[in-house]
Design brief:
Helix content is 73%, strand content 0%. It is an all-alpha fold. The protein folds into 2 domains: 51 residues, no CATH class; 211 residues, Orthogonal Bundle (MetI-like fold), CATH 1.10.3720.10.
């Protein structure tokens, strides 16, 4: 009887491990094949070979130097970093107001914020273009920061408000008794406790700004101010009938690496942020 139970447990664990291995393979294989393609040249690009036959770094040199991906990487890092900073600064203060201060119409305001986050980019493209042109930000990185912050704020405000509501009111009351101001309560008490949720929302906002294409293509026309997605989309071959797949894959690998590094560095905080507030004791 005991042996049969152990066999069933081993069978269940085997299924779990097999499913995890299959899911990992499905997730990793596209990136693995992109790396293989980036290291090939000539006719090797069109051969269905899943093992490396050589290591040719010319595609990386061509992508970073000849096609200006290095400059576009700096632009993307600057835009995404500023966007995340503005989103977190505004979101944590807005979340404090929405979660801690009772005022008329608060529920309707939260519902409006949630509805705004559902609008597709193409629906507000013309309006954002007029706003960017009115503010004199056309063909500048500021236009991207403005548009990305506008689209990321509803999501970050909604998520941080949910986390703020799950925090005990006694922390705030004790700080008020000690004479702490609202800004001190937000930055010294709530911000450290909400570290995992801030990291999670910040990373999602960073990925959204890093991968965005439509606004970057519309609001920026100078080649030196392009972000990475647009720069990769503008790759050209030796003729109009040729696409430099090797350089495109090399640029894609270079662009994906920072996101992978960030996720690996903050993976514990990301898991804590996603599960925070799921169980109330």
């Amino acid at each position: 009887m005991k042996l049969g139970r152990q066999q069933r447990e081993w069978g269940h664990k085997g299924l779990i491990y097999a499913g995890a291995a299959l899911a990992g393979l499905i997730c990793v294989f596209p990136f693995y094949y992109a790396v293989l393609t980036s290291l090939r040249t000539g006719q090797e690009l069109f051969l269905a070979n899943y093992l490396p036959s050589g290591f040719h770094w010319d595609n990386y040199i061509g992508a970073l130097v000849d096609n200006g991906i290095a400059r576009s990487l700096l632009n993307s890092v600057l835009v995404a970093t500023v966007t995340v900073g503005l989103c977190l600064l505004v979101s944590i203060t807005a979340a404090f107001a929405l979660a801690r201060i009772s005022f008329r119409g608060r529920k309707y305001l939260l519902f409006t914020i949630l509805c705004v986050s559902m609008f597709p980019q193409v629906a507000v493209l013309s309006g954002m273009f007029e706003l960017v042109r009115f503010m004199g930000l056309y063909d500048s990185l500021g236009a991207l920061v403005l548009s990305y912050t506008t689209f990321s704020l509803p999501f970050t405000v909604w998520v941080l408000t949910t986390f703020m509501k799950s925090m005990p009111v006694e922390l705030e009351e004790a700080a008020i008794v000690d004479g702490a101001s609202t800004w001190v309560i937000i930055t010294r008490i709530f911000a450290p406790i909400m570290g995992p949720s801030l990291v999670t929302t910040g990373l999602l906002a960073f990925i959204g700004a890093w991968n965005e294409f439509m606004f970057a293509l519309t609001f920026v026309i100078s080649s030196g101010k392009r972000t990475v997605p647009v720069a990769i989309g503008m790759f050209q071959g030796a003729s109009q009938y040729e696409l430099p797949w090797g350089s495109i894959m090399a640029a894609s690998v270079v662009v994906t690496l920072p996101i992978i590094v960030l996720v690996l560095i903050f993976q514990k905080r990301i898991v804590s942020g996603l599960t925070s507030g799921a169980v109330k004791g």
